[in-house]
Amino acid sequence: MARSTAQRATGSRILTYAPEEMQYHVAHFVLLVVFSGFAITAVVLRFWARKVQKQALALPDYLTVLGLIFALGETGVNVYGCCFPIQRRLGSIPKEMGLQLMFLSPILWVTAVTIIRAAIISLYMQLFPTRSFRIACHAALALNVAFGATAVIADCLICQPIRYRWAPTIVHGSCGDQKSLDMYIAILNLLQDVLVVVLPIPVLWGLQIARSRKVALISIFGIGIMYGSHPEQMLVKQILVASKYAGC
């Protein structure tokens, strides 16, 4: 899950990485940059196709751009925490800044996946505008927004005062169980991903087409189950679905 810069607090004013941690962050850096490039390319091609076909922009398009902004912001935070600024040792950054990045990264991540998931659900409503399916989509959208808002608020308030997250020397400051919170957020996020993947399956299975084509279509929609934790990959999936069904 691309949720954390994984900086390690020490008694000094500098956060550093052990060699094995640095190897992880190099791989993480490559993954983030590659899929960020895919996401940007996919969004640009989507808007180019809209222009060529002279189609008006719709809500999923605007949500896609907003989600991309937050996803790239989260990527930037992780990349900065991993590699910049280069001091004597790669990956060394001021301790307080490192803790601030650790605080900011999951908030950007939750916001990005929530917005992109909303874009996918909105796209579903465009592709399958039946009344019963729209009701189901609105319910899924409400759950998605509730998840995002709750996760952000909980992550912000788990330490009191909030500043205690990056200034642990504050007197009388305290934090709850961050690991348990992260686990609950991850589980709820996975359940949201499963819901979004399962949501269109009954509609797809009811289409008057060959069974092999139904399976192929469901597989395309099911790509999202693998991408749920990575906003850049979710964006690519959303563009694939739009391209398949919106004539892109």
Radius of gyration: 20 Å
What average pLDDT do the residues reach?
Answer: 77
Q: What structural category arises from helix and sheet content?
A: mainly alpha
Number of helices: 9
Q: Which band does the percent of strand residues land in?
A: under 5%
The total strand number stands at 4
User: Shape, please?
Assistant: globular
Tally of discrete structural domains = 1
Which strands sit side by side, in order, in the main sheet?
1-2
Helix content: over 70%
Report the sheet with the most strands, covering strand number, pairing sense and barrel closure.
Answer: 2 strands, antiparallel
Q: How would you classify the quaternary structure?
A: single chain
Element-by-element helix/strand order: EHHEHHEEHHHHH
Q: Extract low-pLDDT stretches.
A: 1-14, 85-91, 240-248
Strands, helices and their partners?
Elements: E1 14-15, H1 19-52, H2 59-83, E2 93-94, H3 95-127, H4 131-157, E3 159-160, E4 174-175, H5 178-198, H6 201-205, H7 211-222, H8 224-227, H9 231-245
Antiparallel strand pairs: 1-2, 3-4
Overview of the molecule:
It is found in: Membrane. This is Rhodopsin domain-containing protein. This protein is mostly helical and 248 residues long. It has one domain. It is built from nine helices and four strands. 35% of the residues are buried. Mean pLDDT is 77; it is low at 1-14, 85-91 and 240-248.
Question: Descriptors for this entry?
Answer:
single chain; 248 residues; transmembrane; globular; Rhodopsin domain-containing protein; 3% strand; disordered C terminus; two-stranded antiparallel sheet; disordered N terminus; 71% helix; mainly alpha; 4 strands; transmembrane helix
